Amino acid sequence: MEQATTNVQVQPVDKAKIWGIWKVALILAVVTGIEYVFAFQMEAGALRNVIFIGLTIVKAFYIVAEFMHLGHEVKGLVYSIILPMIFILWLIMALVNLEGAAIKDARGIVDYEGDGIEHVDEEH
Amino acid sequence: MATTATMSKRSLWGGGAVQPLKASYGKLMMWFFLVSDAFTFSGLLIAYAFLRWSAPAYNGDPEAFTFSTEYWPIPEKVYEAFPGFHGVELPLVFVGLMTFILILSSVTMVLAVEAGHRMDKKAVVKWMLWTIIGGFAFLSCQAWEWSHFISGTDTATISDVMVNGIWKENYEIFGANLTFNQYGPPAFAALFFFITGFHGFHVFSGVVLNVIIFFNAATGVYERRGHYEMVEKVGLYWHFVDLVWVFVFTFFYLI
């Protein structure tokens, strides 16, 4: 049987802790706001994508470290979770950047350059 | 002591007094599940990015952009609708609202966990209820977004497609289905359905778990147990759903 607790003492609220939680939420909202600024003010391209991914990792760090409390666990637990994810990131970058571009090249896929610019394939 | 003996017998299933990595059995298992789930989402993300990178991109003037099945669409041209504002271009506003809702529901979840540490049953129940409301709000938004995505805009995209086994030339495509869509190559809508759908299903499961936890907390199950660790464990899952959304948001709506 489970031990039944009879006398429950409700502990008082730690104001600083609550403020800490809302501060993380504020950071997440501000970083999302910055992403919107880049989405509308900057032209699409590799640099903007890198900025987006960087800001995403910032948001992911705050969610995992603070909300999921991983930042306050023992090191062994932190690394057993973070290290596999780092290897997966490595795999993603290798597959997307190198292999994706190679496949696109091998299939002869050409980007659309907009009206008025026609791609003439010399071989046909 | 008699009490500790019965405690450890019961909690052997829960890892007993042994706590590797100073986390309880339940929490560790939740973390391992989340890591494996992250691998699943990584697989989806790799498939998405690979298909997108190898598809023709639109390099023309963004102002002159029109939908075509020949190249990948600019996301902010696709996601620009908002309920009640028909015909008004509001790029990424609705998805911003969805992000905001999910982050807020994550905050209320942390507040529920925090209240659980203080054994404050009333506060746990209150914040769990807000988290459930947030989850339902997000799911409702997604339902609207999907229905808009499927029914499409006012202007059709003309393309040659196969409809019910018959090849049709200059066919007017409205919206999206699993074989073709008005926004871009078939893979675009297929990936949208699969990835946001898989995430939405996670949100749905999270809401179900939250409802169970809410009832257990409200009926005093955790108070009798002496701790609110279940709230923490389900909280981990709920934050993970938020975390996945952060990535879906970047890769699907921004890039």
UniProtKB/TrEMBL annotation, chain A:
It is found in: Cell membrane. It comes from the Bacteria. Its main location: membrane. It is a multi-pass membrane protein. Keywords: Cell membrane, Membrane, Transmembrane, Transmembrane helix. InterPro entries: Cyt_c_oxidase_su4_prok (IPR005171). Pfam families: COX4_pro. One of its GO terms (cellular component) is plasma membrane. The chain crosses the membrane at residues 20-39, 46-65, 77-98. This is Cytochrome C oxidase subunit IV. It comes from Roseivirga spongicola.
Automatic annotation (TrEMBL), chain B:
GO terms for biological process: aerobic electron transport chain. Pfam families: COX3 (PF00510). The keyword Transmembrane helix applies. The keyword Ribosomal protein does not apply. It is found in: Cell membrane. SUPFAM superfamilies: Cytochrome c oxidase subunit III-like. The chain crosses the membrane at residues 28-51, 92-115, 127-146, 187-215, 236-254. GO terms for cellular component: plasma membrane. Residues 1-255 form the Heme-copper oxidase subunit III family profile domain. Keywords: Cell membrane, Membrane, Transmembrane, Transmembrane helix. It is a multi-pass membrane protein. Belongs to the cytochrome c oxidase subunit 3 family. This is Cytochrome oxidase subunit III.
